[in-house]
Design a protein that fits this description.
By secondary structure, the chain is α+β, with helices and mostly antiparallel strands.
Length: 202
């Protein structure tokens, strides 16, 4: 594996949680190979959500893979995990090695350009393990990732590079919101992998 040795990382959050950005953990060449493979082999579908009784279909595409065919519900829609691909298993093992955590599923998002983003939210579904770690890998276009404390509104942001790893853990999801803001400056696609640990009954 063409792997960078990540430097010791500090907590990006001033309090109430832990977010560690390891920067690029893969070379540019290796990152591009994974990007192209994920783009062509993942079963991408437009994401759907039911909000306030209305049915929305996003431009952003998503997919969900996991250890077993268990279901996952968010925004009032239910997904069923697909079996791991070779590349996803490789990246899961890499995320586990660096973060020191174990993950049983991965939610993937494909943003075609800067017109597509993710609104403020927390990954605190009941099916997630409490205070679980979420490992986020990015491939393709660089995008800004923002966090905001729920009470103090203090903000933190970081530019997610291609081939990079960011880990959110401890009480981050309880106290902080995060988002991927839209931008006119980006006209290339980005693939984001978020490795997670779900209750199998979730």
């Amino acid at each position: 594996m063409d792997l960078f040795s990540p430097e010791p990382v500090i907590n990006l959050l001033p309090y109430d949680g832990t977010v560690q950005y390891y920067g690029r953990i893969l070379s540019a060449q290796k990152g591009l190979l994974y990007f192209e493979k994920l783009l062509s082999t993942i079963a991408w579908k437009n994401d759907e959500a039911k909000i306030f009784g209305k049915h929305f279909i996003t431009k952003r595409k998503a997919a969900w893979y996991g250890d077993n065919d268990f279901s996952y519900t968010y925004s009032n829609t239910t997904k069923h995990a697909l079996p791991w691909t070779k590349e996803l298993l490789e990246l899961k093992m890499l995320a586990e090695k660096i973060s020191g955590q174990i993950y049983n599923s991965c939610l993937l998002n494909l943003y075609h350009n800067g017109d597509e983003g993710m609104a403020w939210h927390s990954d605190n579904e009941k099916s997630l393990e409490l205070n679980t770690a979420i490992a986020s890998m990015s491939f393709g276009a660089e995008r800004k990732f923002m966090l905001k404390h729920k009470l103090s509104k203090q903000g933190v942001s970081v530019l997610l590079e291609s081939g990079s790893l960011l880990v959110m853990k401890d009480t981050t999801q309880t106290h902080w919101l995060h988002c991927l803001p839209k931008t006119k400056k980006v006209n290339k696609p980005r693939i984001n992998l978020t490795f997670r640990t779900y209750n199998m009954q979730g």
